[in-house]
User: Fold this.
Amino acid sequence: MFLDLIHLFNKNQIGGRTPLEDFNTEAFANILKMYPEICDDFCKNFLQLPEDRYSIKTQYHQAINTVDPNCIIDLVFIGEKNVCYMENKVESTEGHKQLLRYVLALNEHHPEKQKYLIYCTKHSDPKVIDEKGFFFNQFRWYQIAKFLKSFKENPLIKSYLEFLSTYKMSQDNTLKSENLIAMENMRKTIEIAEFHIENSKYHFIKKFGYTSLNKNFNWDQIKLNNRVCYYVEKALNSVTGKWSEILYSIDFDNLKMIVQIYVDKQHECYKSFNNLISSKNLNKVEFEFGSAIQLQEDLGKFLNNEHADILIQEWFIESFNQLQKFIEENNELDWNLNT
Assistant:
């Protein structure tokens, strides 16, 4: 939903740049407003604010006498005894003495309350605010994303996390020991995955057709989808050019081999495809932008098996056969394949 909204804004705006920071602040603030239990958890356990009855304000105007008549704070939590200003950054950095101006605004407008100042950024931007009378802390957006993941069963939270991920705001770039170990083994792992995809490509092409892919295809797939794969597009004909595919892959996220037919929700045949009844061996999987008829197998099944090359190939070939049979049994759809 959030990606759709910002894409819509990008499409229809007249000049100027997309205020990604403002959009993100409003999206996050409205989640907190909609779900008081999440807001309470965020204030108490993440921001570590004292218990209070907080109201949430965005784009909060707090003029500072003789200094700044247009001081505007991104996100504010106002309680009966406490107040917290939160400045949010995505691609930009702190404005000229911005945090110090917020200190002045806190002191001027909330003299009787306990004062907190939060600086939240996408990139590292360490600050030291040496002023008495308030608490200063700073966070990164990936930390907020990590906090929200405990609520990801909520469809709105899930959509917001996808938005953060798309704009690389949920990614922890801290270099850890496990990352160094993974880097050391990464090339060999990718080579093994590519071997198993190549080992079954002839049988896939024989049934479903050929696609010419550039030499960086799998690196792009790893970066975008965390997988190595091969596919043919236009599995179903589309007058408007909407996406459909037959694909097989090794997925690193869930450590599975996958074979599937995928159809985009905007495709003319989507409703008919989605209503098809799959066999007991085929699973129907719903995605945000479409659905798939899919077969899966755990890679762990072949762990330390010296015959894994032939066993994995046999599994892929049998899966291709099942997809072909599925297509033949549902030939009322406008398939674009010579099967």
Q: What stands out?
A: The CA atoms of residues 46 and 201 lie 49 Å apart. The mean pLDDT is 90.
